[in-house]
């Protein structure tokens, strides 16, 4: 990766021009974190990728949508600076190391507050919005004791368990992952809480300023909570809840998952109790978590800059027959890349390039676990 990337282990620093180019690329239509990384690796720079977007979309079968302009990027950076927000690039020293490990880490992370807290070990705490008094009391106890043990608490600023965890760790440090822009706090009644946690903690978002969070933005936010953390603690989660989505993402990211047992008569505990049945760590006190996580902290962190060569797109120039064969194998049911390679007879690099073209054209959707489907 050139122009804004570095060798593994060597700190990278974006120039002012590169930061503008990175912001333009990630804000352009149909470019998500995985696509951003593929484009950067293949074209060597965000500027080169921006120039290639129209042709990629054409080859994918569509006219490319809006490409974020330099003027818009400069306006966003200026407003972010005014609000005390720094856009930190993936690979820069200030970027949280564990978050950089996940395969869809945000290329640019908007950080407000005490940036030093982002380099400390974190534990994610999530749970029911309509939490019980007992659940919130136990969340406060855990969060306070995690802080005393040297951990920062990461959560999502939601009502219930999230808010309880943030409040109990204000003094020791807490990080709030936001589903919308920094100027669109949800729920709005937690703006005062957010202001207090910025003194010894931080707020992060990958969304642009002015972005109102939608339902589908919360799972994206949840992967940031688990990505920041060494492990996730779930307290009171219903059978179908965002907390279980966070737990699933944590498992996909190789994080430890813990759950607090609850009454089998309380539907708010049904999901967290099922996590325990599936092998999540049982939590009745802070040591149940710390005994598992402390040995992990001594292990080396491997960041996304050290990805395997199999993600390389070098020399990938699919012809029309290869492209048609790969597209014909796609449908509304998600499939993995390995199956597309095996069934199409094309090389992994060719398949990846066709998927990149289709994504820029807005024709495929990416799912967890490396799955893709045709829209």
Largest sheet: 9 strands, mixed
CATH topology of one domain: Rossmann fold
How much helicity do the residues have? 40-55%
Order of strands, main sheet, comes to 1-2-6-5-4-3-7-8-9
* The CATH C-level class name of one domain: Alpha Beta
* Annotated CATH architecture of one domain: 3-Layer(aba) Sandwich
Count helical runs.
14
The succession of helices and strands, N to C, reads: HHHHEEEHEHEHEHEHEHEHHEHHEE
Structural class: alpha/beta
Q: On the 0-100 scale, what is the average pLDDT? A: 91
Short key terms for the protein model shown above:
375 residues; alpha/beta; Rossmann fold; Arc Repressor Mutant, subunit A; 9-stranded mixed β-sheet; 3-stranded antiparallel β-sheet; 14 helices; 13% strand; globular; disordered N terminus
Put the structure in a nutshell.
Helices cover 42% and strands 13% of the residues. The protein is of the alpha/beta class and 375 residues long. The strands form two sheets. It has a nine-stranded mixed sheet with strand order 1-2-6-5-4-3-7-8-9, with helices on both faces. A three-stranded antiparallel sheet has the order 10-12-11.
């Amino acid at each position: 990766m050139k122009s804004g990337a570095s060798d593994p282990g060597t700190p990278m620093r974006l120039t002012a021009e590169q930061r503008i180019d990175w912001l333009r690329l990630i804000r352009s239509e149909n470019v998500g974190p995985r696509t951003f990384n593929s484009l950067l690796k293949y074209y060597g720079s965000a500027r080169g990728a921006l120039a290639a977007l129209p042709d990629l979309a054409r080859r994918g079968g569509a006219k490319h949508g809006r490409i974020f302009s330099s003027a818009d990027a400069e306006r966003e950076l200026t407003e972010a600076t005014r609000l005390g927000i720094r856009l930190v690039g993936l690979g820069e020293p200030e970027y949280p190391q564990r978050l950089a490990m996940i395969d869809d880490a945000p290329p640019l992370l908007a950080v407000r507050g005490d940036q030093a807290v982002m380099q400390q070990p974190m534990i994610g705490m999530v749970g029911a919005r309509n939490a019980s008094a007992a659940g919130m009391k136990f969340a406060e106890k855990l969060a306070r004791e995690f802080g005393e043990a040297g951990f920062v608490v990461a959560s999502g600023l939601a009502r219930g368990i999230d808010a309880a965890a943030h409040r109990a760790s204000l003094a020791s440090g807490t990080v709030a992952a936001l589903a919308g822009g920094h100027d669109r706090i949800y729920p709005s009644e937690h703006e005062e809480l957010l202001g207090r946690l910025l003194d010894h903690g931080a707020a992060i978002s990958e969304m642009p300023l002015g972005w109102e969070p939608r339902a589908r933005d919360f799972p994206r936010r949840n992967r940031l909570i688990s990505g920041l953390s060494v492990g996730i603690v779930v307290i009171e989660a219903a059978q179908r809840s965002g907390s279980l989505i966070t737990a699933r993402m944590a498992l996909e990211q190789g994080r430890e998952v813990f759950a607090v047992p609850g009454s089998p008569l309380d539907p708010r505990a049904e999901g967290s109790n099922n996590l325990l049945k599936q092998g999540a760590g049982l939590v009745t006190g802070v040591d149940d978590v710390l005994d598992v996580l402390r040995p992990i902290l001594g292990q080396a962190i491997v960041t996304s800059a050290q990805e395997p060569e199999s993600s390389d797109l070098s020399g990938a120039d699919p012809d029309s027959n290869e492209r048609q064969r790969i597209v014909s194998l796609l449908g509304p049911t998600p499939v993995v890349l390995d199956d597309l390679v095996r069934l199409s007879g094309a090389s992994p690099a060719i398949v990846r390039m066709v998927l990149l073209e289709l994504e820029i054209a807005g024709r495929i959707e990416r799912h967890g676990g490396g799955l893709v489907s045709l829209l």
